[in-house]
Amino acid sequence: MSPEPHQRRLAVGIDLGTTNSLVAAVRSSIPEVLEDEHRHALLPSVVSYCDDGRVAVGAEAAARAISDPDNTIVSVKRFMGRGLEDARRYRTAYRFIDAPGMVKIQTRGGDKSPVEVSAEILKVLRRRAEMTLGGELYGSVITVPAYFDDAQRQATKDAARLAGLEVLRLLNEPTAAAIAYGLDNGVEGRVVVYDLGGGTFDVSVLHLSRGVFEVVATGGDSALGGDDFDRRIVEWALRETGLVSDKEPDPIGSALAAGVLSSADLRAMTVEARRAKEVLSEATLTTFACPLSDASAVRLPLARERLDAITADLVSRTITVVRRTLRDARVDAADAGAVVLVGGATRTPAVRAAVASFFGRAPLSDIDPDRVVAIGAAMQANLLAGNRGEGDDWLLLDVIPLSLGLETMGGLVEKIVPRNSTIPVARAQEFTTFRDGQTALAVHVVQGERELVSDCRSLARFELRGIPPMSAGAARIRVSFQVDADGLLSVTACEQASGVKAAVTVRPSYGLSDDEIANMLQQSFLSAGADRDARALREHQVEADRLFEATRAALGADGELLSEAERSVVESLLARVTEARGGTDADAVRQAVDALARGTEHFAARRMDRAISRALSGRRIDQID
Amino acid sequence: MLLLDKNYFDLFNLPRAFAIDERLLEQQYRDLVAAVHPDRFVTDSPEQRRLAMQAATLANEAWRCLRDPCSRAAYLCRLEGISVDSAARAGASAEFLTEQMEWREALDEARLGARRSDLQALQVDVAEARQQVLAAVTELIDTRADFEAAAGLVGQLMYIDRFSEQVDEALDDLS
Fold this sequence. Notes:
Largest interface: A-B, 49 and 40 residues
Oligomer: heterodimer
Low-confidence stretches of chain B: none
Number of strands of chain B: 0
Mean pLDDT of chain B: 88
Distance between the termini of chain A: 28 Å
Number of domains of chain A: 4
Number of helices of chain B: 8
Number of strands of chain A: 27
CATH superfamily of the largest domain in chain B: HscB, C-terminal domain
Shape of chain B: globular
Radius of gyration of chain A: 26 Å
CATH topology of the largest domain in chain B: Monooxygenase
Shape of chain A: globular
CATH topology of the largest domain in chain A: Nucleotidyltransferase, domain 5
């Protein structure tokens, strides 16, 4: 049952990109990208911490990228959920600080985590959406590269929370694109999405049929994108001008180290490289021209052929990933019904040519590759928020991109959940103690395909304590993995042999703790001049409204599952929420919400049982036909 | 919840047998997961969302288990209280071990010589062997209800599936 038109919940899809970010919404049944007051849809993903304490975002920040490179963060997405070592690989000139779990960047505005920087971008998009749509947002769907690991996903969700956005779902970018093509262009069958963005590469194989979007396999490289093409051009220019030696394996690093290049120069050359690359998508020849801070200038002709040559290995790396992903999906290149291009970097002719030649067919790019992800996300957000229209009934089945496992003896990985498992998924494995009287067991959770722990990404370490003393091998420790529909993991360990249960649920170590987020929220709030209690009250009120509305809707749909006595209990709990909601006591609101939640648990279970019975009995009737 | 005490066949209203109507299985899975998927309950209470995740997780697991012949056979054995792991170790026949060694040699040689046609021939051999084992498993489970013997063959099936992936990878490496 969809809400009345005036009750439509405002929900948006957000493409939080490496280079540009967008927000889109379904308005009058049509998904559209929302523009700012200058009619710009693309918000450059750039954040600048200005000297007057202001935070500039978007085009204004991008304009400061060259004049104030250290305090202007571009392509922050590359650093989400990443440690110092990974961040340094990108050869940027930022001053990184090694922080537990995730790197921080030193700026004029303080040491900023990539999560905080991303939140600035999201805040601007949120404001744009609320202005355009004329109200507070009910929720959002935020897209992430399919190949993002758990750390990167968690970081994205944290950024949204920091920006005051309710996340209805994290959605994989290629899946979002497939939704847009499936619903808008009627694409069906086996679909391969080739998504080369600014900083990440994804490929997904989907099966589209009868309103079900099923991801069969996904693969990618979360550190390969259009930025790498730009960097190749800069490296080429440095060698070509003789600023660094031809044989230097790392021209940018050595030029920075030798003082040949300032960080402003590097930024200027990178901006020029991107411009030149974009020109070569249409033209076959351009001039790479860039003034340097020492008043000299670099000026070189750049032909498309040369660009193709210096980036050929990047393109072939993407094709290797495509081949591997097709194998995972057990699909031949010739079986692909449609090949869809997503991401600004797919405008590069060499990329298109490589994809066309591999699949033996011309790829589709009917929907603007910069916008298609945001559009798909908006469609999903609209559906999830319950604004379902006629015939608007489709389901998405997605997978986890990387295997999840545990460290075992000798630094080896025992895989618990294999990659490409449909989510949500849960898996458990039993372990035992190896010493007599052992009372604790260390659990190390990793993600990746390699056999050695050291080659995989470490997600969390924790210790299960309080195991009753037993002889070696007698304890039965069950470690359970649960991956939810956002692709986020939680792990529980529990000793079962003695009947004594000890359990712990971890939030992976790189994520911000709830306290840290609360702190950041509070800080941003204090600077806005309001007070903490008011915020707590507001949060509880929002929660109360949501639960109230959810319970009312459930009663409307399935109220007959309750006896009259049960129903009147629920009604009184609802009345209590309404009453507390009208007051100013945050605790009273929370208690009323908790009571309603507890008092409707049995109702929730009966509703689920009804949904299950209906689904299965429907089929039995079909069979009789 | 209704789902929790059911075996996977009951869950999808399918007869408990190795031979399975794959299209019906897929339809049943799709219908069930569509009804319980967390995406259907985003605006509901946290408890309702938790139940949806639990139910969808179970539907996904059941579908994964039943759609693949190897895990479906292993599951049927397990429902009878027979573990495939121990049966496989005990039941590996000398004949099958010899075949394994021959295949492995053929794979190594074809890989070294980069001979695509040899790899393709090997692929056909392995696929034929798999068909034979599947036929035998069907007979043992569905007709004779001999789960001990079936569990031994499931071990062979696991080996064949792993080996066939290696042949596929070797072919991919050549392209």
